[in-house]
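On to my pick:
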Amino acid sequence: MLSPHEIATLLLIQRTPFQVEALGEDTVRLLHEQLVEIERLATGRALPRLTSRGREMLRRLDAFSKLQALSHDEPSERNA
């Protein structure tokens, strides 16, 4: 199971990979889980990238979040 920090790191890698430390503690854990990989740029800089498994994890988290939001909205709609 991923920690909140690891999930946040996964989201940052998706949106702004240049802002994430490639060998930071959370990134290394995501590497171990095969959710990210490290790309070496021509400049020599290491850049974290999502793997297909990482993209799928974020897709599922997004779907779960939307489902949770809908289920929280339903009771108030029934009482209206």
